[in-house]
Design brief:
The chain is of the alpha+beta class and 317 residues long. The protein is built from eight helices and 17 strands. The chain folds into three domains: 109 residues, Rossmann fold (3-Layer(aba) Sandwich), CATH 3.40.50; 65 residues, ATP-grasp fold, A domain (Dna Ligase, domain 1, 2-Layer Sandwich), CATH 3.30.1490.20; 104 residues, D-amino Acid Aminotransferase, Chain A, domain 1, CATH 3.30.470.
Length: 317
């Protein structure tokens, strides 16, 4: 088997906590051939996608990555192309997905580039109002203020295209900073933002659920610190074990058909107070933390899953 990982530079990976690293290592441990490149290494010629990429054997001990000379390879020569570039989901990211659309049908792209373009992490979640917090999406500052002042409790405002908790703010009726917040986040009424009621259950943890090919495989609570209300691990949130309840399973079941249709194989969703807040399809994380919590090896399950999906993909191609 041959794999290409389109990703951030190797030196930027935190090997103690990175899902991409441990997945590459699992592929290498199986004797599969692994290459990597940055998105800038992918290009198109005559309707075919190619990449200037580097063969690498990934191991458990430092220096972790044993690289060979760079090669120029047609992406059709790979069995699986993993799109693992971290956000932001900007125009450079979107352009890479257009190039990945040129990958021939016998090669599997994880996650499918058409779905990556379609499923914005916050906006797509809003298409499931029965699962999602009440949400206003607008750049109208007067409408935002009216909405916020109608809430009995606090409100959350955040950019539609943010990631990692960037730009997420808590406010509420009577907040004298509200005008400045709205001006800042909307760029003076130009940029769209999301406005939702603050979900008090986030204090007990933001539940991250990993989904492989439409099926939930593991979950954890990301618990904010006393210094930050956000449940993002990179801002210091801790993690604790949790179970999947009936509501979690119902949410996963509702999403599964579209995830499978668009070949969104490796997905992480966020649930607070039984409500779906995000659907992460662009380089989801959490494998290492979940492995540590439960003594699991989710990278093994992920590669098994991807190979099964690859077989199905080729049968349908």
């Amino acid at each position: 088997m041959r794999h290409l990982f389109v990703m951030d530079p190797l030196h930027r990976l935190n090997v103690s906590g990175d899902s991409t690293y441990v997945t590459m290592r699992e592929c290498s441990d199986r004797g599969h051939k692994v290459h990597w490149c940055e998105p800038s290494g992918v290009y198109g010629i005559d309707g075919r996608a190619r990449a200037v990429c580097t063969p690498v054997r990934t191991v458990a001990e430092a220096p972790f990555f044993h690289q060979s000379p760079t090669e120029d390879v047609d992406l059709g020569d790979f069995d699986v192309v993993w799109m693992r570039k971290d956000p932001p989901f900007d125009m450079a990211y979107i352009f890479t997905t257009y190039l990945l659309d040129m990958v021939p049908a016998h090669t599997m792209v994880i996650n499918g580039p058409a779905g990556l373009k379609l499923f914005n992490e916050k906006m797509w979640a809003a298409r499931f109002p029965e699962l999602h917090p009440s949400t206003l999406i607008t750049n109208d500052m007067a409408r935002l203020r009216e909405r916020i002042e109608s809430f009995p409790g606090r409100a959350v405002i955040k950019p539609w295209d943010g990631n990692g908790g960037r730009g997420v703010l808590i406010t509420g009726k009577g907040d004298r900073n509200l005008g400045s917040m709205l001006e800042l986040l909307t760029g003076g009424g130009v940029d769209y933002i999301l406005c939702q009621p603050f979900l008090e259950g986030v204090e007990d943890g933001d539940k991250r659920i990993l989904i492989y090919d439409g099926e939930p495989v593991s979950a954890m609570l990301r618990v904010p610190t006393s210094k930050d209300f956000r449940g993002n691990m990179h801002v210091g949130a801790g993690v604790s074990p949790c179970e999947l309840d009936e509501r979690d399973l119902a949410i996963c079941a509702a999403l599964a058909p579209e995830l499978k249709l668009r070949e969104q194989v490796f997905v992480g969703i966020d649930v607070i107070d039984g409500l779906l807040t995000e659907i992460n399809v662009t380089s989801p994380t959490g494998i290492r933390e979940l492995n540590q919590l439960y003594g699991s090896a989710l990278e093994v399950d992920l590669v098994d899953c991807v190979l099964n999906v690859l077989n199905r993909h080729r049968e349908n191609a």
